[in-house]
Design brief:
Length: about 325
């Protein structure tokens, strides 16, 4: 059995065998299985025991492990992580665990195996550096899948120090607590009106490069421009049976409106466009110039003419040139 911390015992235990012999332990040691809690690893070494090493199920369960037996397998869990697994031997009808001895130190150095602290730090970074209290709660309630080397025991022993975790959970200081700036005016609108110039002379207006609190607004005339395009067929049909999307962009409102299509037939596209056109008109954004793909159907062009909307067909090479830009 792979053990560590081996030392001579000061209180030997006696083992009574079926043949009537009494065997005594000579040493105490810890089972070298990192996933087990420390109290579950302690055991006694009995050199004269001829059978295979015996594992105390009661000791495992008393230290918080869960042991599950089936007709052919046995599994030992701790903190929802699988620590040991084994199978039932047909000859003895006993369950045997597969406990491999640790590799030699020089082999570990050769293959560059990670230390327990490195494993905990890697798992913490892979989970996007959460707060240690959050990670501890997730491990305690079994909300995490098995990560190599990450248990409550290893997290408490090797808590990772991550700059990403520190930066992501900073407490921001409230602004203007000890500010030297004067308090804001109780009526900023009145102050702004009083600060605006009363003359219409453009020379009296502040320079464009000068920092100021003045606000200026400009009224732009609506253009009524809209642009329309049809997506290619999607690889998967939606649950509603739609395979295309009609996209209409309104320049004045900077709005993108879409309508799903079951197919790209002219009648289906026309009905979808009517819905979007009606929505724009209801919002006061009546289209005046509609830019269309060169493959727009004659039915759609006739509808635009009926609604007094000018339209412009865009050749395919223009689409490609705009995409390249």
């Amino acid at each position: 059995m792979p053990v560590c911390n081996k030392c001579p015992t000061t209180a030997p235990v006696a083992i009574h065998t079926p043949s009537g012999d009494i065997l005594h332990s000579t040493h105490e040691a810890d089972l070298d299985v990192p996933g087990l809690p420390p109290s579950a690893r302690h055991g006694h070494i009995i050199p004269n025991l001829a059978t295979q090493p015996l594992l105390s199920i009661g000791q495992l369960c008393d230290t918080g492990c869960d042991v599950a037996f089936t007709a052919s397998t046995v599994t030992i869990h701790h903190n929802n992580n699988i620590i040991l697994q084994g199978s039932r031997t047909p000859a003895s009808k006993l369950w045997e665990l597969d406990i491999q001895p640790p590799a030699p130190a020089h082999a570990n150095t050769a293959i560059g195996s990670a230390s327990p602290a490195d494993l905990v730090a890697f798992a913490h970074a892979a989970l996007f550096s959460p707060a240690l209290s959050t990670l501890e709660d997730a491990l305690r309630h079994g909300h995490l899948p098995a990560f190599a080397g990450l248990t409550l025991d290893t997290l408490h022993r090797y808590p990772p120090v991550s700059a990403a975790s520190i930066k992501g959970h900073l407490d921001q200081q409230q602004q203007n607590v000890r500010s030297t700036r004067p308090p804001p005016s109780p009526n900023p609108v009145a102050d702004l009106c009083n600060a605006l110039p009363t003359t219409t002379d453009t020379a009296a207006l502040p320079n464009s490069t000068e920092r100021t609190h003045h606000c200026y607004a400009a009224i732009l005339s609506p253009t009524g421009q809209t642009h329309m395009d049809l997506t290619s067929q999607f690889p998967t049909t939606s649950s509603q049976g739609n395979s295309y999307i009609l996209v209409v962009y309104d320049y004045d409102s900077n709005g993108i409106l879409v309508a799903p299509l079951k197919n790209c037939c002219a009648e289906v596209i026309l009905e979808a466009y009517k819905l979007i056109h009606t929505r724009l008109c209801t919002a006061g954004l009546c289209p005046q110039l509609q830019r269309l793909d060169n493959e727009a159907s004659q039915a759609l062009q006739d509808y635009l003419t009926t609604e007094n909307v000018d339209y412009q067909l865009i050749p395919p090479h223009v689409h490609h040139r705009n995409a390249a830009k």
